[in-house]
Amino acid sequence: MQRSNTIVKPPASGELITVLSIDGGGIRGLIPAIILDFLETELQNLDGPEARIADYFDIIAGTSTGGLITAMLTAPDDTVPNDKDTNKRPLFAAKDIKKIYLQNCPKIFPQDCNMVTRKIKSLFGPLYDGKYFHEFIQNKLKNIKLGDTLTNIAIPTFDIKTLQPVIFSSYEMKEKPYLNAPLSDICIATSAAPTYLPPHQFITSHNEKDHEFNLVDGGMAANNPTLIAMGEIAKQLIRGNSDYPLPQSLEYRRYLVISIGTGECKIEGKYNATEASKWGLFGWWFNPNGSPLLDIFTQASTDMVDIHLSVVFKALNVETNYLRIQEDGLDSTLASFDKATQQNIDYLVDKGKGLLKKKVSTVNLENGKFESYREETNAEALIEFAKKLSHEKRLRELRSPRVQTPKPPLCLETKPNFGALSKLTIA
Question: What positions does the record give for the motif labelled DGA/G (predicted)?
Fold first, then answer.
């Protein structure tokens, strides 16, 4: 299955390969929503008010809440009639994402019981039935499928029936057409965090064959999906995709990567071996300081990806081409995965805005803490990235072959087609 509706010119026409990655983290998706709003505003300052995030990235990857943001930023607005796929616009602007979270998170994660009741409830089923979330996302994305997105995306999930990760990738869909699932199903699946939301089952069909999925949160596979995005590009190199010419596409120097986290509650001494030696199943899942197993799953994989990429880009002396924006000092009592109280929401909004003012940081290999390594702030770094993205977009448009509309021969008389007017109706 070939995609014809991408609005991004191929990397072969430019100098860079552009990647955007968004972590998982439930309601903490408010943090990347604020960061992306800032980036899109800078792009609009350079290229006009119609500029959108999807115009600038070869691939956007998102896990869990990041997958939801990815889908909303790249889904086409089919309510606007347009004969040319390359002129389609995204259904949502980045500024819309924050509003959506503020309006809907309290309904997705209703805070209608106390901590003791919540713990008892989660022993016998998921904390939330997901009905509101399912209806909301199905209403927003309707019948839009993976193959309809306006640039390439990758959203990881995990299949509990096959015990295998499943990556819904625009690129992989060409080899495996059964992956061309509705975006709403993909979003519900990648957000189905065990104990919080129920797993999601759905079926896709291709060539009269059904393919069944039984999926949970993509964070079980990759909470930070940056390497998944870069791996999808690597597959295209193996398959000889002309969009990524060799050998240039093998060089990390050509990559421009923005990776946005949803924040971590890294508290020194939060857990210790003496305490943990007394925990059973209940203790590993529920703790006054949080959920140890959930923290381990998400934070370990998240930081390992950042450490790997930081080292690689630094070794190649192109560390300014990789930007990781992450807050690692969240208050565990306020920034829970699902704590949709007004106090927590306000706290996350403030943290997102404050993160823009912080200096560019990365994980220290020795102590695991986020430490600044450049004098510029994240906001200043994003402004520079916006300039690079804008320049790359213009370069590709300049170099891309233009399709000429054939002119009628001079000897023929052309007449206006008034018949088409009869088809117009006014609603």
Answer: 217-219
Task: Convert the pLDDT of each residue in 179-191 to its tens digit.
Answer: 999 999 999 999 9
Residues serving a catalytic function are: 64, 217
382, part of any domain = yes
H or E, element range at 324 = strand 322-325
The CB density around residue 266, as the number of other CB atoms within 10 Å, is: 17
Q: Say which amino acid occupies 36.
A: L
Nearest to 254 by CA among 40, 76, 66, 15: 15
Report whether 29 contacts 302 (CB < 8 A): no
If one counts every other C-beta atom within 10 angstroms of the C-beta of residue 58, the result is 26
Q: Is the bond preceding 90 in cis, omega lying within 30 degrees of 0?
A: no
Domain of 219: which CATH number? 3.40.1090.10
| Structure confidence by residue, pLDDT tens digits, 310-351 | 888 888 888 889 999 999 888 877 777 888 899 999 999 999
64 CB burial (10 A radius; 0-12, 13-18, 19+): buried
The tally of domains found in the chain comes to 1
